[in-house]
Each structure stands twice: as structure tokens, then as C-alpha cells.
Amino acid sequence: MEANNIILNLPFDESKGSNVAYDYSQNRADVQVNSATFVPGRNGNAIKFTGSEYGEVTKQIFSNLNAPFTITLYVQSLEVETGTPTAFVWGLNFDGLNNYIEVPIEANPKMWFGLALVRQGTLYNFFVNGQLVKTLTQAGTLQGVSLNQDYYGGEYGLCLLDDVKLYDIALTQEELLQASSVNKQQSYTLDGIDFREFGVFVSDSDGVLNRPKLKQLASISWDNYHGEDVDLNHKYYEPREITLSCFIKAKTKNDFIVQMSRFEQQFDKRGLHRLVIDVHPIKPLIYEVYCKDEISVSKKWNDELMVGTFKLKLTEPQPVKRVLKHIRVSEATESCTINITTPKYVNIFWGDGTVDEDISGRDVQVSHNYKKNGEYFPVITGCIDEIQGFQTNAIIVWNKL
After folding, report:
1. Which of 316, 331, 351 is the last residue of a domain?
2. SUPFAM superfamilies given for it (predicted)?
3. Which among 220, 280, 303, 350 is placed 20 to 30 Å from 337, CA to CA?
4. DSSP state, 290?
């Protein structure tokens, strides 16, 4: 299974009040949300439906329902005073009169269930929490698929929905279990290079989520009044200070010297360096940093395995940012565009080593063309709270970080 086999990927990890749910697949078939809200879910947030809300996918996903496919999702029924749903029902409609299949799945309310439907030829397999619960054979032409509830108090569902994925291949049971249990391996990269390529590992980190220190606030101290008057309407932050506790391993003394030297030389390059900490499957932590302090390695020379420890102190000069994601799959999707209205200067780090600086004004259109296919994370730094208008064709990963 490859990443491009995922043709729809909806983690529903948006913030409350968002009117769009982003598709993290290459198709970018985002969902326009009608009245539904985002609440804490199984993994991050989930989308909540209470009977009258719905969402619409903005692009056609399946070009052919009669080819192999897999649908996976997590769902939880909600409780109501009367008529609480107790089952989900897969509905498959085929060509011909009254030619359909219904597969009920018992589901206690307030519990998460992982459901999956896999089609391979004329075979349809239904899974609950990774276990095969039903296999059906149907030779007709599939016209449509739906997941319903035994709920009659509204036109639409009464549930929480999370992590919906569609694949253009038929996954095996083993692959379904692997997909449901995938946890992003935490990693640290600098300008796209994993620390581990230098034999460097991070055991601890400080400052990555801390709110930076406030700059000196304007204040007045009256000699005939207690305390002081402080201007709290203008809050701005000092640079972010990040400390990574690292250790480096090498097989020989010479390898140790070479690996450590290569790692240190990464910070000699001009400009800021992108530090990425992968702690979430789709939402990495990103910092544009530089290293101003020495890297002092504590070690003992050894003729066999060499191990050294050191503190890597990094500074993020522009600590407040908005993080986007743009996926280039062809020349048709090479351009990331941003329309912004801001009275103060902002910078845009495009994620491929280029940056546009000192952008300000009303309805300023900024675009960037990526030369190679891949996933990119543009980062906008500056006074994010004072941006007055913002539109983009990219995914908003972190509105403010």
C-alpha cells in the first residue's frame, strides 16, 4: 500500500467553528461543513452531527465504484433522551429493482467503533475493530454505498465521525490492522535531514511548546499610588528558546568525529534552518531556527562503541506563526497561493528553502511554484493575530502555533 492509494483522508482535526474539513490526500477533496461542529474525538478532534448537520465533499472521489476499494472510519453514536441509535447499517445499492444489501452493525452509544468495508471483485468484506464480521458475494453493478443509523429523529446522522479514509485498493485484514495501529514515529529533522542520519538521537526537549517570554511591557509607577499601571493591550513575545538533549552514537572514534562534524556543519549554512518535530501523523511542529551557542559534547574515547551527549540550544527569532500544507502532484498543482490583508509585515517560508519577506498591505496576492512533487509546509511568521484577511488554496495545519 502506497500513500497515493489513499484517495480521501479526513482526520477531522479542525478547530471549532471551521466551515471546512481538509482532505490530506493528494486529491484535496475538502469537505464543506454545514452547521456541524468539531469536538474532542478519538484522535485529536472529530466532527459532530446531531441529526440536521452534514458535510459535502467538493470533488468526485470514485471514478468507478466497481473497481477494488476500501472505506475505513471511526464512528460513535450519540445519546438522546428517546430513540438513541443502537446500530450502524451499511447500505449497498446495485442496479435493478430492489437490489440492495443491508449489513447491520450493533453499536453501543458513547463507544468508538472502527468500521471498514472492502470490495474485491464480487466479494464484499465488512470489518468491525479489525475483525471480519460479514462476507457477501454480489455480482451486480454497484450504484452507491452508505452508512446509516437506526435513528429517526433527524434527516442525517447522530454521531461523532473521525479518521475517514478511502483507498483505491482492497486492503487485507492484516493491512487494515496495520493502518489502524500506525503511530507516527517521533523524529527530528533539520532542513529535511533526519537527526538519525548523523547518528544523533533526542532524549528530551524543552521550549518547543512553551509560550515565549513577553517583551518588556510599557508601565508607569506613580509615587502616590500602590503598584503600577501596565499597558496590556500590546503583548509581543521574545524569541523562542529551544533546548534538545541529544546523544550521538558511532561504531569507531573516527566515525564519531565525522558524524559530529557533519551535524555541526548543518548550522553553518546561511539563513534560518527548519527544525521539524514529527509527533502527529499529519500535524508536525515546525520552527525556523538558528544556533548561536557552542555545541559542547561530553564523551569518553573508546576503541569500540562511541557515545557522546550534548545540549543543542536553538533560537527561533519569529516565534508566532501559521503553518500550512501544500501537496504538489503535477504541474496543475504546483502553485500555492495566499491572499492576505495585514497592516504589519509577515514573512512566508515556503518549505523548499525559499522565503518571501516583508509582506504587508490589503488583498496582497502571493504565490509560489514548487518544482518537484511532494508535500510542503509553508510557514507564515509575524503578528498572526493582526492578520485581517486570509485565503489560501493550501491546508491550514496550525492556525497559530
Report:
1. 316
2. Concanavalin A-like lectins/glucanases (SSF49899)
3. 280
4. B
- Establish if 132 belongs to a structural domain: yes
Q: Please give the grid coordinates belonging to residue 129.
A: 475493530
The verdict on 102 and 244 lying in the same domain is no
- C-alpha cell of 186? 517521533
Backbone angles phi, psi at 336, to 5 degrees: -105, 125
Beta bridge partners, 90, equal 103, 147
Separation between Cα atoms, residue 174 and residue 172, nearest integer Å = 5
Q: What is the pLDDT of residues 21-51, one digit of tens each?
A: 999 999 999 999 999 999 999 888 999 999 8
CA distance 43 to 220: 47
Do the beta carbons of residue 26 and residue 182 sit within 8 Å? no
The set of cell numbers assigned to 170 is 482492497
Give the pLDDT confidence of 147-182 residue by residue, as tens digits. 999 887 778 889 999 999 999 999 999 999 888 775
What is the spatial distance between Cα 220 and Cα 32, in angstroms, rounded to a whole number?
50
- Do 249 and 153 share a structural domain? no
Residue 116 included in any domain:
yes
Please check whether residue 224 lies inside any domain of the structure: no
**CA angle at residue 363 from 361 to 366, to 5 degrees?**
90
Instruction: Classify residue 163: in a domain, yes or no.
Output: yes
Tell me the HSE value of 73 on the side-chain side, using a 13 A CA sphere.
Answer: 19
